[in-house]
Write a structure and sequence with these properties.
Layout (H helix, E strand, L loop, with lengths): L12 H9 L2 H11 L5 H8 L3 H13 L3 E8 L2 E8 L1 H4 L2 H14 L10 E4 L4 E2 L18 E5 L4 E4 L8
Antiparallel strand pairs: 1-2, 3-4, 3-5, 5-6
Length: 164
């Protein structure tokens, strides 16, 4: 899913990672899928992305091993949605670190509020992306919630391979 050149064969791991993750939509899709929003219509609506762009990104993410298709019931019909793979779940520390970075280095828009990264296993807010700053445990998607005051909601993340 190269954006510029094909960097998949580069020795530099940063270039190889950007070959897969360099498009901002990719990390936003991973974020939503980890929050259990893996249905096409949920992704389109929540991200405000066109169907064509979303279809291309999802196809690329399937090919890159970030997502897998999962069945879900829609009334009497069985449809397919998207769930995070282990590769996508391994992006959680990066997403959380990006969040912490933005909290520190960008201006919060009016009406917003501090997004807390809550480690549900110990109940504390963590100030680190990979390991809980309160209890020292590795942070897994199924043990995390993101407290979003601008939505007045605390959203629990989903383990890899699941669609809520």
């Amino acid at each position: 899913m190269a954006l510029r050149s094909d960097w998949s064969q580069e020795f530099c791991p940063v270039k190889r990672s950007l070959d897969v993750l360099g498009d901002p939509w990719v990390l936003l899709i991973v974020r939503d899928v980890l929050h259990g929003r893996g249905r096409f219509d949920q992704l389109r609506e929540n991200l405000g992305i066109s169907e064509a762009v979303l279809s291309r990104r999802l196809s690329g993410m399937l090919g890159a091993g970030l997502l897998t298709k999962v069945d879900y019931a829609d009334g009497a019909r069985i449809r397919q949605g998207y769930a995070a793979t282990e590769a996508a779940a391994d992006l959680l520390p990066i997403l959380q670190q990006l969040s912490l970075w933005a909290e520190k280095h960008t201006e919060l828009p009016a009406g917003g509020g501090h997004m807390g990264l809550i480690h549900e296993a110990c109940g504390a807010e963590t100030t680190q992306g990979e390991v809980c700053s309160a209890c020292g445990q590795v942070l897994l998607p199924e043990d995390m919630s993101w407290d979003k005051p601008w939505k007045d909601v605390r959203e629990r993340l989903q383990p890899a391979g699941t669609l809520s």
